[in-house]
Design goal:
281 residues; mainly alpha; two-stranded antiparallel sheet; 14 helices; 2 strands
């Protein structure tokens, strides 16, 4: 006589997940379903007219371009700073590694609003960035960085930098540092060892970090509102403006669904790519 495996609903351990499932359904699934239905609703019922109207407006295409361009630049800046920082963190001694980890993780406990206001002080004409640039002789006079796209990229990159460093660090610390030495004994140059050994091994962490930073940058709302203002619209700020100021729930729902589709595409694509790269390495 064969014993049947208990079903998922009869398994007492599986029932422990029931509160989390109910919470996710109520807090996340229901609002997302409401947004989806609202974006497809019209006077005559379900329709694609809201999306057709949104895509036919050149201003909305500029909004999408603003969103993707800023997210791409933030991701590039975070990668250029975070990649070597992850190696420095992984190769540092115990004490220095603890200090660096605290320096990276501790700012995550501070809200984005506080950090955005701090960057308002840093980026103003008499801020520290202007003083440094003028002290180095790169600027002849103070330049305006606050309420510019450059200032937004710098502020957002600072806030999202830990999400680039930590995934890369988690992969780099598993790489044997003697691999480069082994390649050198075979006559390989440092550049060849990096491009053919180190970089391929770190690609899963790089892809994960890029996915984190890009998805966060695409959906950021508070940071653009404080660092660049309402004159520069992204999908997230347009969504908030539609709901809070214009009271246009259909437009807000449409932009929210488009933003959600972008975020889901980024996460799914990066997961697939990370899986393939992880399998190859």
């Amino acid at each position: 006589m064969k014993l049947r495996a208990p079903s998922a609903w009869r398994d007492p351990v599986a029932l422990l997940a029931l509160p989390a499932v109910v919470y996710l359904l109520v807090v996340y699934a229901y609002p997302l379903l409401w947004l989806l239905m609202k974006s497809f609703s019209g006077p005559a019922g379900l329709t694609l007219q809201p999306y057709v109207a949104f895509m036919s407006d050149p201003f909305n295409w500029r909004v999408i371009g603003n969103t993707l361009r800023v997210a791409a630049w933030v991701t590039v800046v975070c990668f250029l700073i975070g990649y070597p920082a992850a190696f420095a963190l992984a190769r540092a001694g115990t004490v220095m590694q603890i200090v660096m980890l605290v320096s990276i993780i501790l700012p995550l406990s501070i809200g984005a609003v506080v950090k955005a206001f701090a960057w308002q002080i840093v980026l103003r004409r008499d801020g520290i960035v202007t003083q440094i640039m003028m002290g180095l002789g790169l600027w002849d006079e103070p330049q305006r960085l606050l309420f510019t796209e450059t200032g937004l990229v710098l502020g957002a990159a600072n806030i999202f930098l830990p999400f680039m460093i930590l995934p890369i660090y988690s992969v780099v610390k598993l790489i044997d540092p003697r691999l480069s030495e082994a390649g050198a004994t075979r006559g390989a140059t440092p550049l060849y060892c990096f491009t053919h050994v180190t970089l391929p091994l770190t690609l899963p962490g790089v892809v994960s970090g890029i996915a984190f930073v890009f998805s966060l940058s695409v959906s950021m709302f508070v940071i653009p509102s404080l660092l660049i203002g309402d004159r520069f619209q992204t999908l997230s700020t347009l969504t908030g403006r539609s709901f809070l100021l214009m009271r246009n729930e259909q437009l807000g729902s449409t932009t929210a669904v488009i933003l959600l589709a972008l975020a889901v595409a980024i996460v799914v694509g990066s997961t697939w790519l990370a899986g393939r790269l992880g399998g190859k390495t």
